[in-house]
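Got a spare moment? Tell me how you read both lines of this record:
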Amino acid sequence: MRLDVVTIFPEYLEPLNVSLVGKARARGQLDVHVHDLREWTYDRHNTVDDTPYGGGPGMVMKTEPWGEALDSALADGYEAGARGPVMVVPTPSGRPFTQELAVELSERPWLIFTPARYEGIDRRVMDEYATRMPVYEVSIGDYVLAGGEAAVLVVTEAVARLLPGVLGNAESHRDDSFAPGEMANLLEGPVYTKPPLWRGRDIPEVLLSGHHGKIARWRRDEAFRRTARNRPDLIERCEAAAFDKKDREILSILGWKPSEDGRFWRRPQAVEE
């Protein structure tokens, strides 16, 4: 996979050289190119922004530097043999970035990131490049950052770990929270490792039992407990067909009941046991 990032803070992307992403780069699984947007400015101040039309606070990133930078990145990529680019625009007004979207992006051969600063990029840039490639406007959460570089790091790590050969255990990501499939609407439960006793705290006996069926059930029950506590909306949105008899039993214990449409809702003031 090829990644291009156009930014006014190339140094912000240094974490792409470490951990799983850095190892994937070293092995040639990720071909990362970071471009300094200011290289495509021609005034002595290297200006990349201007006041917004219509008035209002803040500044807007200009079309000319972005257009030239993106044209250059595309030309370099095509010359190197890359194909099938998509543009990823981190923005608080984009669609939520989810595990499902991470999987979708991991299947693309070439991602071009456009992290903005100030009040964002002149809309015409996205409209122009949407005629040349798919454009994904994505939000990593309901909050506002000073710029989109942090979002680039988040999306890149979420996508890169899904690429073949990046994780040491190819099956590791299948049990992730939000992983597509049966467990898609449950958070992952707690995990433990050696030693079995630490500061007077032991681990659940079931994990030492060697009984794989009981261990799997315990993990799923714990996933339900954590999801009910931290993200009850995920259970509310889940189709009832995803729950087996044991799932329904733990949901009942946690204070949930099936509604007429088959989905579950939590009884008011239900207390987890």
Q: What stands out?
A: The chain has eight helices and eleven strands. The CA atoms of residues 85 and 110 lie 5 Å apart. The mean pLDDT is 91. The helical segments are 19-26, 63-79, 99-106, 123-129, 149-160, 212-230, 232-237, 245-253.
